[in-house]
Specification:
The protein folds into 2 domains: 318 residues, DD-peptidase/beta-lactamase superfamily (Beta-lactamase, 3-Layer(aba) Sandwich), CATH 3.40.710; 77 residues, no CATH class. The longest helix has 17 residues. An 8-stranded antiparallel β-barrel has the order 11-12-13-14-15-16-17-18. By secondary structure, the protein is of the alpha+beta class. The protein has 10 helices and 18 strands.
């Protein structure tokens, strides 16, 4: 299907076709979304189409993470809670829920079993007794260490708090509301068969596929390009009733300055900030990336263990923006509170100049003059007359407006550097010496 120009559709299909041939993919499907709709999809190899199921691999984790964030929003847990408060009996009871989501809990990457992606999985009741303290590879919070095992724990957390399996909770709370009817734990025809491609010959070897049991929340799901396009639209901001927009934005915040948030991967490409996840299982590779600023996304699914070269989904997204760029939104004037207008303009933190500007919906932007570097933040009004920092250095801090100064958590801003008669910590001296 296509809702883009013939030239754009041809360019996207050619990129997909070149990848299928050069990477020797048995089949591959891809799609591009914009404003919540699939505007292009294509397929190469075999009888693949937009409804053909492929294994998602670790994209599953991003969906499990949404379930955990829903529990948090409902007040059933806190991200700072130790895991053992909700699921007792594991040696990782002090690792926090948030650390498991962000792969900073220090757990081993894999469970203490055979290669779980190629062998039948154990149920929770058999896997969890095998867990021992030696699987705590790093001090919780010390480093980012990707852990499939951590998401097995989160799947059980969802089951305990919901009273149903993680999969049933996912169907009811995420998949059905988003219209993802071809996403499930086991393949349903039509579905692709996973293959390994011989490195030195154009021949195939079928890869095994099993129910992963307790490890399923780390990578079990199968889905189609049509359904994954719905997920791309969700990541781009089409939340519906599934998740609050502010919670999705929280998931997209990098943890400890890294390239992972709460259950989602983060990346930059061509000046765009992308959010998504990749996935791999024996016989399958997948990737989905969304650009929340442009409300667009791209994805691919393929039945090859080795998969395509890096960058296919990001390339498709970049091609959409190159061939059919959005027009900038029209500038429109707004009505401003005169009291807020009086606050705008030049302020100083010590000798350093800052500007205070009005944003739409009564927001404030306090930023260093002359560039993005420094301690800049956006603020929104609170009922008590203070302003809450949304991002940057002052995220979560309160700005208070004084008679002749601004106070941001003890940082005093004045109209002139160290202005006399204002409560500058340490006092304001005489610039004349």
């Amino acid at each position: 299907m296509t809702d883009v120009s013939e030239t754009t559709a041809r360019a996207l299909l050619r990129r997909l076709a070149a990848e299928q041939r050069q990477s020797r993919l048995p089949s591959v499907v891809a799609a591009v979304v914009r404003d919540g709709r699939t505007v292009w999809s294509g397929a190469r190899g075999g009888e693949a189409g937009p409804d053909t199921q492929y294994r998602l691999g670790s994209i599953t984790k991003s969906m499990v993470a949404v379930l955990v964030m829903r529990l948090r929003d409902e007040g059933l847990l806190d991200l700072g809670d130790p895991y053992g408060r909700h699921v007792p009996g594991t040696p990782f009871g002090e690792v926090s829920v948030g650390q498991l989501l962000s792969h900073t809990g220090g757990l081993a990457a894999e469970p203490p079993t055979q290669w779980w992606e190629r062998t039948p999985g154990l149920p929770v009741g058999e896997l969890f007794p095998l867990l021992d303290p030696g699987l705590q590879r790093h001090r919780p919070g010390r480093v980012f260490h990707y852990s499939n095992l951590g998401y097995a724990l989160l799947g059980e957390l969802v089951a305990v708090r919901r009273g149903v399996s993680w999969l049933r909770a996912l169907r009811q709370e995420v998949l059905e509301p988003l219209g993802m009817r071809r996403t499930d734990a086991r393949p349903q025809a039509p579905h692709a068969i996973g293959y390994a491609v011989h490195p030195f010959a154009d021949v195939l070897l079928e890869e095994p596929e099993h129910d992963a049991g307790a490890m399923a929340p780390a990578g079990q799901l199968w889905s189609s390009a049509h359904d994954l396009a719905r997920w791309a639209a969700f990541l781009a901001g089409e939340c519906g009733e599934v998740l609050a927009a502010a919670t999705l934005a929280e998931m997209r915040e990098p943890v400890a300055g890294g390239e992972y948030g709460l259950g989602v991967e983060l990346s930059s490409a061509g000046g765009r900030r992308l959010v998504g996840h990749g996935g791999s299982m024996p016989g399958f590779q997948s990737s989905v990336w969304a650009d929340p600023d442009q409300r667009s996304g791209a994805l691919f699914l393929t039945n090859s263990t080795a998969g395509p070269r890096p960058g296919l989904a990001a390339d498709l997204l970049a091609m959409l923006e190159e061939h059919e760029p959005r027009l900038p939104a029209e500038w429109r004037p707004v009505r401003a509170d005169p009291r807020l207008l009086e606050l705008t303009g030049l302020w100083h933190w010590g000798p350093r100049p800052y500007t205070l500007s009005l944003l739409p919906e009564r927001g404030l932007l306090l930023a260093p003059m002359g560039g993005p570097a420094g301690r800049g933040s956006r603020f929104v009004p609170q009922d008590d007359g203070t302003w809450l920092g949304l991002d940057g250095y002052h995220a979560g801090e309160l700005l208070r407006v004084g008679e002749r100064h601004l106070d941001v958590n003890t940082f005093v801003f004045t109209r002139v550097p160290y202005e006399a008669g204002t409560p500058v910590p340490g006092g304001a001296g005489d610039w004349s010496g």
